[in-house]
Amino acid sequence: MTDYFHTIRIDPAKCQGRMSCLRVCPTQAIRVRGGKARMLEDRCIDCGECITACKSGAILPLTDPVGELTKFRYTIAIPTPALYAQFGQDILPGKILSGLRRLGFDDAFDLAHTCGEVSFVIQEYLKENKGPRPIISNVCPTIVRLIQVKYPSLVEHVTPIDIPREIAGREIKKKKAKQLGLKEKEIGAFYITPCPVKMLSIKQPAEKGKSHLDGAISISDIYGPLLSAMETLDKTEENNSLENICLLGLGWAIAGGIRRTLKLKNSLAVSGITEIIKVFEDIERGKLKHIDFIEAYSCPQGCVGGSLTVENLYISYNKILQLLETLELEKVKACPDIVEIRKRYRSGYYFIEGKLKPRPLKPLYEDLSTAIQKKKEKEKIYNLLPQIDCGVCGSPTCQAFAEDVVRGEANLTDCFALVPEKFKELSQELIKLLNKTAQSFSKSPLGSKSSSSRKKGGQ
Amino acid sequence: MTRDDEFRQTFKIKGRDFSHAGGVSTEIKEILQEIGIPTQLIRRVAIASYEAEMNVVMYAQQGKLILSINPETIQIEVEDKGQGIKDIELAMQEGYSTATEEMREMGFGAGMGLPNIKKNSHVFLITSTPGVGTYLKMIFYLDHEKAS
User: Fold this and answer.
1) ipTM of this complex prediction, to 2 decimal places
2) Which of A161, A247, A362, A427 is the most buried (most CB within 10 A)?
């Protein structure tokens, strides 16, 4: 039907049809048919809500196993800044990067540095761009997909600046290839990811043909080995410091971090799909034109709240805040040079190669007149339904069920509340049938017996 | 009354109900998406219907909105019982508003409501009787969009 790639898999063998996923899906992309959950691919935005909701462990995120590393001659780890928040207060970014190298990566690259670069770029873009306001950050791939699917008119609000992890992948491969005399394809750049959706943006970027990254390894998969690796580092190599860590870039780990470090006044930081939907509704109504920039993350509190992280999200949020405060006191030493960034900005260095296109849900029918008829039909069906959104039919709401019936993807008889009606019809037939039988009985001795008892009663 | 090729739905709007305000225009947007109306036209209808809905919420006791869609046009009529508008010409001016301080604090009352409806619709009609209520009608042409 569609060719969208998703990083969420439902294992039918494990699925018990318990419907938890059905209720939490923000885009109504799940149906339960024949007792098994199924995904509607064109609706799914890979937010991962269903992964958390599933009690049977049947919905799984897709990330790369660490084994993928052997395919390359040289490997580089590019960890999300949210990784820096996963360990105790005493373990600083420098040590975490050393730990990744000890773990077997040939190098580990501090993504916060590129994030910082892109923060400056956003600042430039906000100054220069006179297009529709507010401008929406594209850092969270789920949000980008939510816009494509449910808010297609907001596509033009999304920043056209490439995501830091992509820029980092592109540049570090170029640099290393030159340095080591290797071909770029011999170098594997692996993103250490806080959520499954980043894997998706690597396998199938929303805007362009191909990602500059070669895979994503989840924080939860690497956490244990990384912790052990860090323990084996000796004092000289552990480099346990905040030195060279860019304040602006660190902010990317949490919702509100970009806003805070750039000191953007007219901007919002929003996290959690339900809250984001409210904000997007307001933008579509033309209510937020006075806002310049919106940082939106599908996970609560931003990337530290990703489903593949290990540390409690409030603890990790707090750790990032503390690191930011420490760096703020030191007055942004390690951040990239703004003059250089401006030069590159003009050359187009930071812009996305492709263009983001809307991906609106398909209407009830291609042709408008037929679509209107289908809509009328849908309303008729909806009016027959109990309108309690019980979900027993396997569609998330009565509206969705009516639509599924009109599209021919469900049967009216799947509605649990219509069963008593059917039962009444059937039972009326049954009564008729019984009456017929009773009449034939009345000629039998049983019939005369009952009439005699009636006589008795009358005496 | 309804044409065979027309879909029609009536929505009730309650005055002063700020917690549900905007719900009707969101529902309208979803209906237009289902039917497959072009994205940019949906945006215009969404803005205009939201402004009209908010006018009822802010200034009337109650009102209703009737949405009709046929293959040529989208029509929205809003009728309310409320204070009405004394001077329509003045109300149509950008920046003119009779909103209270409280409404302004909530981000409303910039005096852009009616001008915004006019700007976003292709045909806009308004009549009002002070002390009785207001009726407005907006039409959006589906072809108009293709042409522009």
Assistant:
1) 0.88
2) A247
